[in-house]
Amino acid sequence: MPRPYIMPDTADHAELFGSDINANGIRDDYERMLLKSYQRSEYVAMGILAAERWDKLLRLLHSQEEIKTSFQALELFNDNIAINQCYYSLQKVDKSLISPVLNYFNNDQLLDAKYQAELLLLDIIGNNQANFTFHQKPCERFADFAKSVKKGKLAAL
After folding, report:
1. Cα 134–Cα 31–Cα 1 angle in degrees, nearest 5
2. At a CB cut-off of 8 Å and minimum separation 6, what does 154 contact?
3. Distances (CA, A) of 106 to 47, 103, 114, 126, 143
4. Cβ-contact 130, 76 below 8 angstroms
5. Is pLDDT at 13 greater than 70 in this prediction?
6. What is the maximal distance between C-alpha atoms in the chain?
7. Are 155 and 25 within 8 A, CB to CB?
8. What is the pTM of this model?
9. Cα–Cα distance for residue pair 95/123, rounded to 1 Å
10. CB burial class (10 A; 0-12, 13-18, 19+) of residue 120?
11. Which of these ranges, 55-64, 70-79, 143-152, has the smallest mean pLDDT?
């Protein structure tokens, strides 16, 4: 499966993001959950692509270098809204599908980090909150995420 970047190898990486023994850029417990829970490869791919956005959200707490403008913050926030909307719409069709969001943010430390990062995004967005986008076809964002993989590095699952 494609992975669009390599996570930085820092001391707080393992503390916040968890272990990644096979060094493929995907937290081991989350990777195991994806492979055990999803029989369809597209659901595994969606889980990996969603994790890239969630990783970016968590990295925001350590460095705001990637998110410098209100537009970039708004884009990340809108991406997270689209991920949630997509899983919700797919669950209407496939009752067995469970969103991986709670498996990704699976402890109090990660949930708090998500909350703090979202507050930081809202602070960066400022008065542009009226520009939140509720995509008519939110699952198409996953196709956009996958296209961005072509521009970045690839790693195998």
Report:
1. 75
2. 2, 3, 4
3. 14, 5, 11, 29, 26
4. no
5. no
6. 43
7. yes
8. 0.81
9. 36
10. middle
11. 143-152
